[in-house]
Amino acid sequence: MSFKFWLIIMSIRGVIFDIDGTLVDSLELMALAADNIAKSMNIEINIKKIPNLVGKKPEAIIEEIFDVHKKSLILKIKELWAEEASRLVIEEKRAKLFPNVLKVLSWLKNHGYKVGLGSSLTRDLIEGIADAYGFRKYIDAYVGSDEIKEGKPAPDTFLEVAKRLEIKPKEAIVVGDTEYDVLAGHEGGFLTVLFDPNTQKKPNQWNTKPDFIIRDLIEIIDIIQKLSTK
Q1: Which residues pair with 15 in a beta bridge?
Q2: Of 56, 187, 195, 199, whose CB is crowded by the most CB atoms within 10 A?
Q3: What single string gives the DSSP state of each residue in 49-95?
Q4: How far is CA 17 from the centre of its chain?
Q5: Model pTM?
Q6: What CATH code would you report for 3-25+96-228?
């Protein structure tokens, strides 16, 4: 579907955000949490791989990073990883919001847009992070990896968020920091925005083709305003 076609048919009613690496700069802490768990279990992992896998369901990441395939062990590691991530990110608040997160979320709510979260984190972690970093009051609906059958890059997460927001995919923008977010968004029929604050890649350097690439979340406001004038 061409971007020109999007401009013709779209009437934006909501925005769905990923969390890790999009709203909260916590990827390094998630990797550290995995490394801590691996060390406690005497398992060697390459934590440098984790940022490139974030976006997938935790089970898929664990299977690849920890090189384990027994379901019971995968679930045990998932539980331990979630507990350690919760300690670092929620209890100790060692992560930080990206610039302008609260400003953008507030603007969306004040202008009547619905706001959703679609994450590979579990529902409990989503709630804990949203509370700890002060943005839960802006959120209308959210979906965790423990609530859907297929994780990203399948569209299930974002489709379920849209359903809970009571909006159609063509009425929503998906904002994420990984190619899994973009793939899932496109597959679900959403307009996609890739948040790339660090690598500064050019559009043609990404394997996926998001409709927009932004460096600062404040650009979401400009995108919506431009779409609303078409």
Answers
A1: 115, 173
A2: 195
A3: GHHHHBTB-HHHHHHHHT----HHHHHHHHHHHHHHHIIIIIIS---
A4: 6
A5: 0.87
A6: 3.40.50.1000
Contact in structure between 90 and 81 (CB atoms under 8 Å): no
Q: What is the pLDDT of residues 157-178, one digit of tens each?
A: 999 999 999 999 999 999 999 9
Question: CA-CA distance, 202 to 178, in Å (whole number)?
Answer: 14
Query: Which residues make up the CATH 3.40.50.1000 domain(s) of the chain?
Result: 3-25+96-228
Are 159 and 179 spatial neighbours (Cβ–Cβ below 8 Å)? no
75 to 18, 41, 80, 90: CA distances (angstroms): 23, 14, 9, 21
Q: Phi, psi (5° rounding) for residue 164?
A: -70, -30
- CA–CA separation, 52 and 9 (whole Å): 33
Euclidean distance between CA atoms 201 and 196, whole angstroms: 8
- The alpha carbon dihedral of 34, 36, 40, 45 has a sign of positive
